[in-house]
Amino acid sequence: MNNTQRYALPDERLPEAVRRLFDLPEQIIAPAGAPRGDIFYQPVDSADEIQLDFGIALVSPVQYLLPAAEVLFEYRQNGDGSPQFSAPATPPERIIFGIRPCDIAAIQYLDQFYMEREPVDTLYAARREATTLIALACAEPAADTCFCSCCEGGGPVAEGGFDVQLSPVGDRYLVEVATEKGQQILQQWQDLLEPASEELVAARDAQMRRAIEEQLQTVSNLAAAIRRISADRVNPETWETIGHDCYSCGGCSYLCPVCTCYDVVDIKYDDNSGTRIRRVDSCRLAGFTREATGHIPRPTPASRARWYAYHKLSYDYHQERDRYGCVGCGRCIITCLGEIGMPRVCELVRQPEAEKIG
Amino acid sequence: MEQVDYIPQPAIIDEIRAETPTEKSFTLRFTDGKEFNFRPGQFVEVSVLGAGEAPFCIASSPAQTDAIQITVRRYPQGTVSAALHELEEGDYAGVRGPLGNGFPLEEFKGRDILVVAGGIGLPAVRATILYILDHRSEYGNFIFLYGARTPADRVYTDELEIWEGSPQIECMQTVDVKDEGSSWDGHVGLITTLFEPLEIDGPQTTAIIVGPAVMYPFVVAECRQKGVADENLYFSLERHMKCGVGKCGHCTIGDKYVCLDGPVFTYAQMQQMQGE
Hints:
heterodimer; A: alpha+beta; eight-stranded mixed beta sheet; four-stranded antiparallel beta sheet; 12 strands; 34% helix; B: alpha/beta; Elongation Factor Tu (Ef-tu), domain 3; Rossmann fold; seven-stranded mixed beta sheet; six-stranded antiparallel beta sheet; 15 strands; globular
């Protein structure tokens, strides 16, 4: 945070600040309404389309870095049968405006997974490089499903990982500019900004602490569950209970902004050409680990529920990734038909009878 | 930093050999002129364009750098294995790799080596056996035990015959059952029945065990009985490794990616892995 520059932007100048983003060559992705009132992060052509008064968008804007499906390559077979390959197109330059701190935390996790942990995933890295992130911090939990204070590095205000962050405080926004890419935005906004007073920063931080306190119960359940899961001290019957309520629909992992698992499939255009794509997959589905022999290493909903929780919350993974695989966005709670989103799983895991003795 | 390349290297199928009614060996020769160097125990992702990509261990000697061999069992549910079985000599396949860690054969130098392979596990250790035979003076006693369900299920039968007659390697075979009318006059019984007469210096021995999972606990028990330490028991694990580079998530066991951290693990490491 040392190099972060801080400014104040009065509320009434925000529309002009947003309008000026459209003078930049980048495509603008921002929260905007869909026909039935849902909010999606989508490409917008003007500031009028953008909606900033929303809770949490069900589909994370992480989809612009990790699309549900993408081309790995296309191929064509020559007359002698030898293949010719072509790499996917260069990704467009984009600004994602209005991204929440939970999704920023998710992107930090993804950066580590795809770009810092070798081998580097070049397709993700190219999109990431082409993307500028303008975060919108939360003055209070954006929805009653939020538990973003669960894991270090998360919370209603991003500590890093953004290029620019706007924190609403009273009648103005605290504007933080953290990176080179952020400087480009700063240039657009220069004459709209005022110096940020210490009071403004203090007011934002006080507001953040209040938002964290509102989430305390969930957070303490999570911390306890992390300890139990890491020490492998969870009674197998607890996973059976959770597995019983799991429909194996994959919804939690499809919406989870830190879930990275994918499937790889070939699609033929004709006998001599086609494409190989990767597309989102879910470890909650029965066939996820199926092998050619027909053997399925994790055959039951209980075994998959245990795996999912372990992957996201164990120290083992934390050591490797520098953070837990949950950012507390609450989308699993919203989508789960069995009502066993992450906080409920943690609550069940921390109950005394869930502990495995010995 | 090392980067993922999802585009395979083209390879022409030089030779196809039917090992058994369900298994074929393919020699894949690279057409881009690049040397292909690997460690025994590493694997490749092999593509049949339009059908997909699947992981196979490299079964040929690491001394050969212009081509590799894989041995593929055809399964009713295996899309890529079925597509490979339909290919003919002169057809093209794609290869990504080498992938995974392989066996640390440098570290094994000076030690006695016991290789135990069951059924279709043999292709996963063939590169290792050929490497040790090429560097025979650097290793101590070298024992190879091979078990198959029936005599007709055995792969690489010509080579097995050569190894059985070689003073360089103590090679023993067994079959679980002798098929009707078979001319098999060798040992009949589970692979564990080969252990009892073996003279093994336990602490001096490194064991490499590859086969169906059902075989593992019994072979581990025999090795421990002979005094081989858990950290000297090496396995090559199988999972459906779809990407081979630690990203797609299909091959995880506990916090390990079989494709990236393995596929070779010691028994001591396997005991630390949480989950199934």
